[in-house]
């Protein structure tokens, strides 16, 4: 029987080992379920304390995706069965997923993420936590939560607000599919290799003199990736986000009503911008307000505070928001015709937004209080 996630250790000539995590549901584009999250957390904690493990690699099975997000069907069914109330399924999945993401960010030892193929939603949460985030010519990276009545969670409140200009807001509202060059420009990736460099990379890793010195291991891994990048057969190309930064900033400037008008009235011949426009206007109007609230945080919150903030909103989206309808339209009935709670952004009431932004917990009983 295939395991949803596979753990291996690779020996090196230095005597140190490399821990390798492979997400292993290729037919579901390696989407995360709760069991995978729990297994990864347990194994990563063990490797973190194991002096024989120099660093960790995260990879996805197959050639299509590293990880296309979270498998949220269980949350959907629980939320449909218990309308207007917080379910244990939603609370457990999001809280344990965010704790795993936070563990990666705080891991200490190097974490190399092989971001080949599709990296979306929950997959981007894993990738953002890596110290060495490798992009390839096949990388397609996005935060498409607006299409299912959510918002860019998994730490998006932290990393989107640290991108150039208004790029983070643009990515959240439009679900724009980033290339490797785009992801490198906004800081989601920090290395580039050809997709066929994976085996040579593992071969080269085995030759390095890894040690107990964590800082040195970070440096040696960076040096290895940089030297391989110089000889990569594929090209990262140019970033449209970088090229059109001024236009993106103008499009995203103003309050929600202004930005909605600017996107609605946008007349462009650029195909990528037309797709972004269409996705934004078809997305959940409630999600628009959540994404603007997220952008208003700026750089004020710590990473831990961002995850705590997100958990309250994520479970509320399942209880009172558009999440169930978004999942129904995309994954259950697959009619791709969601009937959002509010037809238009101008119809959204302040009370509905406040309800979503009000955490079910206080600091003392928050599931992530120890983060």
Automatic annotation (TrEMBL):
Entry-linked CDD domains: crotonase-like
EC numbers for this chain: 3.1.2.4
The record's top EC class is hydrolase
Question: Which reaction(s) does the protein catalyse, per the Swiss-Prot or TrEMBL entry?
Answer: 3-hydroxy-2-methylpropanoyl-CoA + H2O = 3-hydroxy-2-methylpropanoate + CoA + H(+)
Task: Please give the SUPFAM superfamilies that the UniProt record associates with this protein.
Answer: ClpP/crotonase
| This protein's UniProt keywords | Hydrolase
**Domain Enoyl-CoA hydratase/isomerase positions:** 18-356
- Report the protein name in the record: 3-hydroxyisobutyryl-CoA hydrolase
From which source organism is this entry? Shewanella japonica
Q: What is the lineage of its organism?
A: Bacteria, Pseudomonadati, Pseudomonadota, Gammaproteobacteria, Alteromonadales
